[in-house]
Amino acid sequence: MPAIQAADLVKEFSRPAVLPGRLPRLRALFSTKRETTRAVNGVNFEIEPGELVGYLGPNGAGKSTTIKMLTGILTPTSGVCRVAGLEPSLDRARNARNIGVVFGQRTQLWYDLPLRDSFEVLADLYDLDRSAYLRRVGLFTELLDLEDFLDTPVRSLSLGQRMRGDLVAAMLHEPSILFLDEPTVGLDVVAKARLTEFIAETNRTDGTTVVLTTHDMDDVERLCQRIIVIDSGTVLYDGDLSRLKERFMPHRFLVLTLADRSIRRVTDMPYATEVETSAVGAVLPYPDRSVVLRFDPREITTPELIARASQVYQVDELSIVDPRLTDVIAQLYDGLLT
Amino acid sequence: MSTSPQVRAFRGMTRAGTRSVLIYRGDLLTGAVTLVIQVVLAIAVWRIVYGGRGPVNGVDASTAVAYAAIAACLQSALLPWQFSSLPMRIRSGQIATDLTRPLGLMWQALGQNLGVLLARLPLAAVGLAAAGVLGALVLPPDGAALLLAVVATVVGALIAMLCNLIVSMVAFWTLEISGPLIVYRFGSSFLSGSLIPLWFMPGWLRSSIEWLPFQAQVYTPVSLYLGQTRGIEALALVGMQLVWFAVLTLLLQAVWRRARHKVVVQGG
């Protein structure tokens, strides 16, 4: 049985219609006209237990709406979703015990209370016995370094500390499925690395199924083998991360640092096109001496291209760079290649 | 709500409410000082009003003074300045995670509010102690009056919690509710009889107030304690409380059904 199942999932919102003409707001007060928008428009996917899936899409694509249906916060307009065999909106309380949820933009901790008190309240809410509670908190304290701020009120925590607290809050009751909605938003590099490491570790050791929505493609590359991309409420892509790159950005970059800095253009390289250095998206060691060539490995193999380059030019340094996921996703969102 | 995990979850929310009050010691202290001043002033004013005269409308000076003091203390416990965290949670969107809990949202809110109420009881005790020191407290006439007063206080507190929560839920539709809250706060203080005992109100006003749930919160328990209302009338007052409790429970359920529909169908 899949951990998560979405079949023809649709969610429509209806709002009072904005009326054209004079005094639109005043007239809207007395009007019963409503307009309907489809936030999620027939989404299908299945996620097996233990998978770590990136659920991606631009702002307003329907990601959070999907997550809210899977967590039982929203009722689908039509279609079915099942989480650990339950229909979340019909069985909210039982579903709650199977899932852990983090909404990165807001906290689920009690703002006025110390972190530890929030955990104790959660232990009561989820009916954890004392020994299981102490074991979990002990484990997380060690893994996420909570010791120093366990007794600090949540309102005084830094964003990174609060996020760690929120993650523990979502996992205290050992949920088999974890929904993380932008868990790394606003975090610095160190805090982000620690969090992604922890998420990967949880997925690996406990076999927790994780659904991650984020705009941070570094997170995705570090964590997910599989991604589901949605836009305007429908699935654009569902599959392997590496295959996505192959399909939408098959080329790679060869970065050459030439000994002769007077050479500004490279002309005699077949199957390779010179592009702006900025296309690589990585920091180059010697930008003023670097030349970037884009090539398609299906037309010329990487060793062949390197051999050819070293024959023609005196090369101080060279490196191969893969396209960044951000660019791939940007292309996908733009709909250029779909 | 009869199974033990649900009860434990409810107690957890109560604990969260209690702690979130107790953590702000300064706020509690200010609250205590304010209440003591209020009690002292009320006692002073009512003593001057009576000025050694006999009973007015069947109420003698010591009863009126005791009423004023006890009512102020009771009101301070029942109507805290921020009587529910629900509007704030609706505005900030935290309500979303609240809905992923294994305990229903209304039980979460009631549990939290009960915790706040319990944490504020010491405050009321300080106010009563001040009244005692000034010799303003009187004992109930007999055991039956005391017993009825205890029952009425508990039911009155439940009614106050339900009213507070129902009013807070307006936030599901309007998001911003400071306006309605101020009206409610003043209306409730006046209509519950905590500012002025209902005995001194004109007949037409009293008979309208009898149709509202507010007198059940303060007037009923205090008037029973002082033995001002006795016998069959006393039982009728408690009966009225129970009716209000049932009505408000049903009303809360109805409002919550509408609110939940709005949240889960329209996304808030």
From TrEMBL, chain A:
| GO MF annotations in UniProt | ATP binding; ATP hydrolysis activity
> InterPro entries under this entry?
AAA+_ATPase, ABC_transporter-like_ATP-bd, ABC_transporter_ATP-binding, P-loop_NTPase
Q: SUPFAM superfamilies recorded for this chain?
A: P-loop containing nucleoside triphosphate hydrolases
**GO CC, any one term:** plasma membrane
Its membrane topology? Peripheral membrane protein
The source's superkingdom equals Bacteria
Domain ABC transporter span(s) in chain numbering: 24-257
Q: What are the subcellular locations of this protein?
A: Cell membrane
GO BP terms: namely: response to antibiotic
Keywords of this entry: Antibiotic resistance, ATP-binding, Nucleotide-binding, Transport
Q: Which residues cross the membrane?
A: none
The answer to keyword Transport applying to this record is: yes
Q: Main localisation, per the record?
A: membrane
Q: What Gene3D superfamilies would the database entry show?
A: P-loop containing nucleotide triphosphate hydrolases
The name of this protein is ABC-2 type transport system ATP-binding protein
Native organism is Kribbella rubisoli
UniProtKB/TrEMBL annotation, chain B:
The superkingdom of the source organism is: Bacteria
Give the record's keywords alphabetically.
Answer: Membrane, Transmembrane, Transmembrane helix
| Matches recorded under Pfam families | ABC2_membrane_6
Instruction: Give the transmembrane ranges.
Output: 21-49, 61-81, 117-139, 145-175, 182-201, 234-252
Q: Which PANTHER family match?
A: INTEGRAL MEMBRANE PROTEIN, SLR1174 PROTEIN-RELATED
Q: What is this protein called?
A: ABC-2 type transport system permease protein
Which lineage is the organism of this entry classified under, starting from the top rank? Bacteria, Bacillati, Actinomycetota, Actinomycetes, Propionibacteriales
